[in-house]
Amino acid sequence: MDDLKFGTRNKRGDWAPNQPAETAPLFAFPPRLMAILKWLPHYFFPWNAIFAASAIAYWALVIPSMETMQTLGIGWAAWLYAVNAICVLLFYGAFEVHLYVLKRQENRFKYNGKFPSEQKNKAFWFERQNVDNMLRTFLSGVVIWTAVEVGMLWAYANGYAPWLSFAERPWTIAAVALVVPIIHEFHFFCIHRLIHTPFLYKWVHSVHHNSVNPSPWSSLSMHPVEHLLYLGTALYHLILPSNPILMLYQLHYAGFGAIPGHVGFDKVEIGGDKLIDSHAYAHYLHHKYFEVNYGDALIPLDKWFGTWHDGSAEGEAQMQARYRRRKEKLAARKTRMEVTGAAE
Q: What does DSSP assign to residue 15?
């Protein structure tokens, strides 16, 4: 597959798509009906359908009985941790092996031309990004994922969360299922802006941003506080008219859904001329520039708040202009403080 038909590569070997990143047309005004209809299949396939199917499979094959979950216990919590860890290992590992270990498509469609394994970095445990990212994923990420899952299932089993059956309220359940990605996007944008405040960035979010060149295991490589904030998206179902399957879908959308944004490749080759779009470009630009694209472009929140970067020259100019305005504002504030101090 010739990736230069879809983008360009610079002298460093970094690849960028020809088309700038776009926000979904769902919230465009005036409404663009044809654009929405053309985009709609991408809302479901492949990623959202995978995460929804995994939630259904969990409910059918993994989740203990309601009677068991009425009482918090180490046994069933450990069972869920084991299943979550195995599924993360298989799902994340499949991308890691295909793209980074076997390098089956070499660096075709790879945003950053280098592979993390090629460089040691003291920012990571054992100076290895992959080792650090994997340990943080299993020692903190999957632990907190399981804790949220256990807490929510216990709440459902004891009647503390609203539980609607599909037979009784099919349209309500369908509506909530449709907005699960929108709930995630809103939640992610809000907590992401929060942890980019100076104090929380330094002590919490910088752990995730150590992976400037993200790879699959970077997806859940976070500080425990960020894991709790990020995976806490499932807690909305304590007040939403919902049920355990939709709560699991919400949790899987966050846990498994972190992969596409961190896979490091714009497209994944799956044999022959078949490609799967990762839709990772906007989030890759966030890892590259830090202060843009706090959301995932489903809702144009970054456009509304002036932090959107689509990867184009215009987007770069807007970002640099924003940096200059902030620098000028800080300089003016410093001057005022100096003048005030001198006057006193």
A: E
